[in-house]
């Protein structure tokens, strides 16, 4: 679809507001049910109250044609995200984001999953639920992943029935961290109905669950067993759908001077067996397990763990969380492949800077990230940017420009692909 046509659709829809949004959703529904153009136009104009809904009848026809092309090219959620971001960027109202979120939630033509996807993209929020005992390295892991000190490290977390959270703005996105103090430290807290209810209330807004447990233990601790059993019983499979299990302190001395890889295998199987017991073998079998150590760049097997964690998050987080997560950390992603061919001196300098990105993905990780992004209905546009990051020395600035806007600038970039 030509860039100018896409820009015009977004501009008109953002200017008209709610009626145009209803038209777009109606066209999407009509198109998905197989009804032809005449019926689509009739349904759309009926929602707008006739051609007067948008100045001049010819503009209506042009707009409807542009919407149909945009829906075919990018999908409903992606188009609505661009329109809502245009409205937000053009508004002087301090409460415009809250207004937009309320409007999305009140749209009866959108499914709940669509609403969550659009709201996550518009608010640019990526939410992580942290589960694990005090002292397992939860805060340090977040700081390592994000590359900045955002979570306080050290001390003992208070044992309260509150699910606390704090926000970390990164670029144009916001990482929201939900912590569960005391959950894995106290049998009483793990069985507290009010506490479990508080976790259930925030779960619909969670894009990723990180369960962090030390590698240097021989079994799943009693406190962890009680907490995970209670959580799984209260929440069900939803707890595990977007979860990753992290083994911390992997560079520490292991019990009985065990070798790293065999011990990691035994620890993984023990935890899988327990999770299978409290959920199902299918859930346990699909869970990813990763060894990490916040005091080292690589684990004892020589593998860098931050690029792998980034890749796993793109694969495992909710579809609605892909765009905010990539937008937050995208500028820090590079390629581990240094075989770029011959370049001029200036190009070599740029290429060297590119290779020194904080999160360098190897070729296999690049492909996994590409597949992970594909599953997000609004993520298709990001694939080109991520693939470019893995192949072109000048990509970092291009990638940053592509995703940092997450609005009309994002769409202008996409239309050139």
Q: What are the salient characteristics of this protein?
A:
single chain, 417 residues, alpha/beta, 6-stranded mixed sheet, two-stranded parallel sheet, 56% helix
Strand order of the largest sheet: 2-3-1-4-5-6
Strand proportion: 5-15%
Low-confidence stretches: 35-40, 50-58, 338-350, 379-417
Give the total of beta strands: 8
Morphology: globular
- The level-1 CATH class of the largest domain: Alpha Beta
Question: Can I get a quick summary?
Answer:
By secondary structure, the protein is of the alpha/beta class.
Structural notes for this entry:
The protein has 417 residues and is of the alpha/beta class. It folds into 3 domains: 3-121, no CATH class; 124-303, 3-Layer(aba) Sandwich (Rossmann fold); 321-415, no CATH class. It has 21 helices and 8 strands. The protein has helices at 3-16, 18-32, 37-48, 57-74, 76-90, 96-106, 112-123, 138-146, 187-190, 193-202, 222-235, 238-241, 260-278, 281-286, 305-316, 322-329, 345-355, 363-374, 380-389, 395-404, 408-415; strands at 125-131, 165-170, 173-179, 208-214, 243-248, 289-291, 333-335, 359-361. The chain has a 6-stranded mixed β-sheet. Strand 7 (333-335), helix 17 and strand 8 (359-361) form a beta-alpha-beta unit. Helix 2 runs antiparallel to helix 3, helix 18 (363-374) runs antiparallel to helix 19 (380-389) and helix 19 runs antiparallel to helix 20. It is globular and about 70 Å long. 41% of the residues are buried. Residues 35-40, 50-58, 338-350 and 379-417 have low confidence and may be disordered.
């Amino acid at each position: 679809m030509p860039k100018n046509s896409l820009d015009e659709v977004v501009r008109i829809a953002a200017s008209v507001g709610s009626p145009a949004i209803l038209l777009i959703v109606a066209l999407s529904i009509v198109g998905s049910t197989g009804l032809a153009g005449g019926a689509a136009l009739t349904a759309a104009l009926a929602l707008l109250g006739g051609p007067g809904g948008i100045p001049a009848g010819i503009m209506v026809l042009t707009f409807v044609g542009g919407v149909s092309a945009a829906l075919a090219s990018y999908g409903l959620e992606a188009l609505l995200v661009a329109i809502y971001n245009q409205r937000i960027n053009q508004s002087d109202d301090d409460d415009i984001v809250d207004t937009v979120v309320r409007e999305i939630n009140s749209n009866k033509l959108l499914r709940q999953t669509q609403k969550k996807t659009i709201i996550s993209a518009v608010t640019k929020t990526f939410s992580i639920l942290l589960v694990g005992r005090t002292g397992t390295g939860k805060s340090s892991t977040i700081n390592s992943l994000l590359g900045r000190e955002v979570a306080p490290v050290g001390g003992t977390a208070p044992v309260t029935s509150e699910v606390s959270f704090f926000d970390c703005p990164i670029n144009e996105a916001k990482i929201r961290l939900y912590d569960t103090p005391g959950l894995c430290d106290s049998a009483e807290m793990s069985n507290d109905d009010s506490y479990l209810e508080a976790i259930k209330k925030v779960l619909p807004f969670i894009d990723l669950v990180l369960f962090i447990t030390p590698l240097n233990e021989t079994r799943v601790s009693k406190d962890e067993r009680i907490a995970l059993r209670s959580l799984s019983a209260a929440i069900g499979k939803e707890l595990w759908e977007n979860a990753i299990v992290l083994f911390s302190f992997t560079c520490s001395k292991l019990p009985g001077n065990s070798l790293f890889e065999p011990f990691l295998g035994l620890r993984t199987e023990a935890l899988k067996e327990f999770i299978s017991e409290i959920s199902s073998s299918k859930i346990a079998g699909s869970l990813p397990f990763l060894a990490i150590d916040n005091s080292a760049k690589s684990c004892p097997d020589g593998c860098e763990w931050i690029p792998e964690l980034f890749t796993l998050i793109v694969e495992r987080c909710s579809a609605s969380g892909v765009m905010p997560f990539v937008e937050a950390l995208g500028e820090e992603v590079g390629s581990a492949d240094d075989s770029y061919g011959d370049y001029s001196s200036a190009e070599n300098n740029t290429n060297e800077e590119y290779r020194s990105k904080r999160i360098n993905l190897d070729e296999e990780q690049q492909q996994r990230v590409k597949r992970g992004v594909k599953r997000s209905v609004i993520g298709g546009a990001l694939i080109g940017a991520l693939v470019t990051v893995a192949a072109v020395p000048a990509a970092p600035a291009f990638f940053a420009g592509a995703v940092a806007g997450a609005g009309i600038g994002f769409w202008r970039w996409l239309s050139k692909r």
